[in-house]
């Protein structure tokens, strides 16, 4: 739940979809890509305001960009491994890679293919997985 103010109020509905409402800025602050000027960011009872993005990513807080944001010159597997760049748990990373491949079978089939060889839809899906969110 995203809350603001003193009493954990829900994020205002009018800010959810309106252009220039600050949605991306809020998400960047939560992920550690921007430092809030007046507010604080708390996660599981801890103040994480101003933490760098790699440290917030280690908590599982990441921002996945829309579209086909993959590294075209890297293989599908290399792109997936980048999503786990801040993790040290090698066995768990391997399990997560297999899990993602079970969700997205086309990625498993194209594991050694360069990112540039994926179709547009596959690149979008792969960008989500490289998920820089789902593996990390």
Describe this structure in words.
The protein has helices at residues 23-31, 53-57, 76-82, 90-103, 105-109, 120-129; strands at 3-4, 9-10, 42-43, 46-47. It has 136 residues and is mainly alpha-helical. The protein folds into two domains: 3-57, no CATH class; 76-129, no CATH class. Strands 1-2 form a two-stranded antiparallel ribbon. Strands 3-4 form a two-stranded antiparallel ribbon. It is globular.
Chain-wise SSE layout:
Layout lengths: L2 E2 L4 E2 L12 H9 L10 E2 L2 E2 L5 H5 L18 H7 L7 H14 L1 H5 L10 H10 L7
Antiparallel strand pairs: 1-2, 3-4
Q: What structural class is derived from the secondary structure elements?
A: mainly alpha
SSE pattern, N- to C-terminal:
EEHEEHHHHH
Q: Which strand order does the major sheet show?
A: 1-2
Number of strands: 4
Name the helicity range: 25-40%
* Range of strand content: 5-15%
List key phrases describing it.
globular, mainly alpha, 2 domains
What's this entry about, in short?
The chain has 136 residues and is mainly alpha-helical. The chain is 37% helix and 6% strand. The chain has helices at 23-31, 53-57, 76-82, 90-103, 105-109, 120-129; strands spanning 3-4, 9-10, 42-43, 46-47.
């Amino acid at each position: 739940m995203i809350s603001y103010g003193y009493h954990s109020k829900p994020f205002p509905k009018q800010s959810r979809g309106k252009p220039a409402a600050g949605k991306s800025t809020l998400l960047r602050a939560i992920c550690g890509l921007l430092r809030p000027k007046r507010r604080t960011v708390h996660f599981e009872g801890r103040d994480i305001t101003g933490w760098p993005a790699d440290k917030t990513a280690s908590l599982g807080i990441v921002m996945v960009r829309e579209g086909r944001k993959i590294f075209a010159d890297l293989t599908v597997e290399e792109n997936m491994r980048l999503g786990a760049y801040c993790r040290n748990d090698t066995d768990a990373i391997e399990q997560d890679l297999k899990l993602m491949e079970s969700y997205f079978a086309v990625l498993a089939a194209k594991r050694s293919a360069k990112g540039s060889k994926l179709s547009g839809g596959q690149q979008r899906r792969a960008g989500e997985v490289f998920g820089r969110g789902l593996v990390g």
